[in-house]
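Duplicate of #3305? Posting structure anyway:
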């Protein structure tokens, strides 16, 4: 019997690789933790707090995760303590393991125990091993979970009650007997005074918004305007690198005041949590303003838990990720650049600020004190067309 030829073997191999590659994505289903918990009324408070603290978005954004859910009766004492939002987020982060554990895996731990990282550890706020949780198979088949903190993890152990939901190797939701906490999780969160633009810039740069962070740093007046409002609450919408890259050619053609307006338009006054964004349908006031000093708003539309921003020029940007939510500051990634002024209207053909003849002044926070509205350059019609083209391209590619 003749052997299979080399070309046939190669063809079979390539076919197998293609089949595996194309079928792999179908094996991984997206998950929605609030939808999973919605069918369990005794876990409703836990679900609400995951949403309020922004952890629900973090959970949904991970491929492999285990959530240790706590029933309403055991959540009540935690809620009664009135912990700050940041502290509550840290405590609940201990209940989100960044690995998959179902009933079978819990009762088959090698050596009877395992140390697992949590979202608290992944946040970078947990010192040392404080963000780790030990899983241990105790006597009588009871499985315990305890945070590794201050060398006394067993004193704060909770126990596995039942499986609530299992999607193998994607997400598991397990009910536990109570709330875990630790000294590190309840340590005072950073005060509003310690939150600075550098922190926000770092968050952006490390999470796919580095180009927009660069625009903030390079645009005169932008950093100072953001810093001025951070303490009272500010929500940043940072366009992803791909969207900014597409828009940069048009951005460079804008006058200095128009560039500042575009950058400031991505900062909304006030702190808006993910829950608040999904619940709201009103315009958000931004740091950008027109010539009369009137704030230019951005509209918020929420459908099925998905948030879309619509600018004054009617271009839309979807909120794709929560990058940070630490009151008084929240940072979200969006998939397009928002433009506050209508590029289709006749451009301002007056002298540029750089030629020394402009009467335009800037109040230092993006609010114009004189002159015309932030204008497009002398080549306004060309730049306007380029803006629209790049926006459409960025939106279509998203």
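Output from current build:
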């Amino acid at each position: 019997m003749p052997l299979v030829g080399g070309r046939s073997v190669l063809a079979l191999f390539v076919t197998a690789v293609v089949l595996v590659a194309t079928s792999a994505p179908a094996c991984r289903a997206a998950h929605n933790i609030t939808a999973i918990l919605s069918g369990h009324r005794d876990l409703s408070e836990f679900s609400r707090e995951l949403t309020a603290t922004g952890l629900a978005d973090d959970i949904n954004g991970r491929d492999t995760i285990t959530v240790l859910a706590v029933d309403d009766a055991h959540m009540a004492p935690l809620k009664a303590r009135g912990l700050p939002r940041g502290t509550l987020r840290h405590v609940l982060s201990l209940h989100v393991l960044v690995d998959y554990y179902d009933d079978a895996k819990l009762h088959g731990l090698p050596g009877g125990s395992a140390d697992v990282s949590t979202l608290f550890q992944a946040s970078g706020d947990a010192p040392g091993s404080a963000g780790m949780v030990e899983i241990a198979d105790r006597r009588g088949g009871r499985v315990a979970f305890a945070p590794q903190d201050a060398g006394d993890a067993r004193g704060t152990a909770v126990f596995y009650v039942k499986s609530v939901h299992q999607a193998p190797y994607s997400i598991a939701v397990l009910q536990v007997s109570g709330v875990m906490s630790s000294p590190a999780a309840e340590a005072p969160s950073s005060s509003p005074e310690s939150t600075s633009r550098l922190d926000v810039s770092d968050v952006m740069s490390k999470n796919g918004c580095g180009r927009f962070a660069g625009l903030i740093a390079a645009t005169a007046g932008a950093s100072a305007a953001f810093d001025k409002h951070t303490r009272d609450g500010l929500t940043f919408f940072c366009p992803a690198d791909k969207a900014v890259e597409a828009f940069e050619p048009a951005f460079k053609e804008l006058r200095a005041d128009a560039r500042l307006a575009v950058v400031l338009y991505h900062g909304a006054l006030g702190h808006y949590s993910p829950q608040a964004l999904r619940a709201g349908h009103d315009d958000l006031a931004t740091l950008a303003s027109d010539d009369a000093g009137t704030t230019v708003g951005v509209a918020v539309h929420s459908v099925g838990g998905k948030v879309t921003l619509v600018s004054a020029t009617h271009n839309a940007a979807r909120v794709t990720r929560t990058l940070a939510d630490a009151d008084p500051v929240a940072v979200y990634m969006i998939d397009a650049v928002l433009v506050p002024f209508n590029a289709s209207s006749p451009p301002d053909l007056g002298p540029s600020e750089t030629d020394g003849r402009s009467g335009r002044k800037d109040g230092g926070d993006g609010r114009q004190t004189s002159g015309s509205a932030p204008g497009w350059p002398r080549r306004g019609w060309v730049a306007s067309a380029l803006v629209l083209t790049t926006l459409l391209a960025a939106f279509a590619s998203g």
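Confirmed duplicate; merging threads. Residues 6-27 form the longest helix (22 residues). Residues 6-29, 190-198, 343-396 have pLDDT under 50 and may be disordered.
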